[in-house]
Amino acid sequence: MANRKIPALEEVKKNYVRLALESGNYSSIARHAGIDRTTLNRWIQEYEDEVRGQMEDPASAVLSIEPTKEELKAKYEQAMKLLGEKELEVAMLRNLLKKSQSRP
């Protein structure tokens, strides 16, 4: 069978190589990835030059997926608003249920 490289899989490998090179703790990164350390070492040998080049290029820096404080605050406020609406809806339904049960 031909050895074809799947682009999405190659990107995943490169991301783990980047993490390993940045942290220096190859064993921990391999454990996190669920792979053997020798597998990670093979990936590092294969992609190290390319990944180091990308690490030095600020244009290719990995964007943080951490939400900002403002985003978290907005999500919290939205969740609290929805919670309030649901609590009001439950109270109204309970009141309606009481009224319907008290009728003969």
From TrEMBL:
- Every Insertion element IS150 protein InsJ-like helix-turn-helix domain range: 16-48
- InterPro entries given in the database record: Homeodomain-like_sf (IPR009057), InsJ-like_HTH (IPR055247)
For this UniProt entry, the molecular function terms from Gene Ontology, in alphabetical order, are: DNA binding; transposase activity
One GO BP annotation here?
DNA transposition
Record protein name field: Insertion element IS150 protein InsJ-like helix-turn-helix domain-containing protein
Q: Which organism is it from?
A: Mesobacillus campisalis
Q: Which domain of life is it from?
A: Bacteria
